[in-house]
Amino acid sequence: MAEEMEERASGDVVSDKTVSPEPEPAPVKVPDVELVVDGFGFMPKSPDGSGSNLRPRKLSKGSKETQSPDTRGSPCMSSTNIDIVRRFTWKTKNRMTVQVITYGATITSIQVPDKKGVPDDITAGFDTLEEYFQPRNPYFGATIGRCANYVRGAAMSVRPAGRVYMLSANRGRDHFNGGFVGFDKVNWRSHVVGNKVYMSHVSERLHEGYPGTLMTQLCFEVTCDNTIHIEMKCTTTEPTVVNLSNAQFFNLAGHHNGSESMYEHIVTINADKYTQVDDEGLVTGEKKVVGGTAYDFRVPRCLKAMLPKIPMGGYDVNFCITQGTAQDLTFHARALHPGTGRVLEVYSNQPGMQFYTGNRLPDPEKIVEPLPGALNADEEDGIEQGESEGSELREEDDGENGDEASGAGSEGVEQYGYVPLTGKGGTLYKKHGLFCLLPQNYPDAINHKNFPNSVLNPGEVYVHKIQYKFGILLGKYV
């Protein structure tokens, strides 16, 4: 024992403990979902410099003032004069990419892989902000409000007071998708919390004729299971009508692949009834049973076999979703493209879903005959606009894009054809090239007592949830 103490005192003792090497740095963990924020453009300035292109107008004698777009400026507005349009990009570990901009709270791009792992953009849109401003934009990817779809005669009676309000008539004599400057033409305020993006907007009282000041908040989130979550909440200062929706134009084969690939989709819709429409496409208040009709999608149906059965040139109908009692999210629809294997499922808490097959997108086979007499400069420039969703316009045909009109090759003869709608990457969006699955309340529900309630009262919260789930069919569809 004494010898051991002497050796320690001399300092010649070598410790038995070995020095362990420094641990290797842990590999950087790639997040399941990555969110990137950048800019997409700037809002145009209004003539008065206020950032809002709105001016008061009177609807009729004795009625109160509302607001309509000033034709001297761009038909859009900013929420509290925000100039920058921000873009948010989610990237998941499963190779899905989603982009949303604050203008119109619009989803501009959804890229998902096919069964071979090759991603492609499957939703319609434009490359630049200025293209989203154009009057012919068919609401591509935008948030629709205050009231989606039609309000017949642009008039509604809000109970319990029963007062009649006149809304702006932006589609003939009717009100459509929130009016001239709806939620799709607003630059929303935004902030980020984790991987969630919140957007907010205050719609002032009597804007587009709506009663009450409506406060709206949206939440966008993309999760690693390739699901887009959208939650919409509203509160109001007076009883008012609210029916929000999200207008995604899909083609699971790729937004650029046109009608032939759209016809290949196999669609399932969880509804045993649909709302009957008249010759003008407006609901009559009657609900029809889908059984034995071309509207029966309770079992998977191929659009190529179903579209010829529709006399109106395609589907543009609201389905009454079958919901369980006390059920939050309900399965609405499923779309499958067998060639790529991409599958889309739509879930929501809304009672209805509008199914639309792009019937009013420009039709290259429809030739517009010239009116008698010479055309003036405005008509030659195509200023005379039709419906906002790709209505066919008159314009001189210069032979571009291979779209020929009658009389092609004749010198000195004015030629007319459809006006193409050019989207992302120079894609020409045409009739039946895309389809929509829009969760919402029934159209014109405010004017039909037998439809679900669409009135939001002070103290209540309107909550609308949507989920777009994307997947892949690995086997062969039978």
UniProtKB/TrEMBL annotation:
Location of region: Disordered: 1-78, 356-414
UniProtKB keywords: Carbohydrate metabolism, Isomerase
Protein name per the record: Galactose mutarotase
InterPro entries: Aldose_1/G6P_1-epimerase, Gal_mutarotase_sf_dom, Galactose_mutarotase-like, GH-type_carb-bd
Polar residues: bias regions: 65-78
Ranges of biased composition (kind: Acidic residues): 377-403
Pathway named in the protein's UniProt entry: Carbohydrate metabolism; galactose metabolism
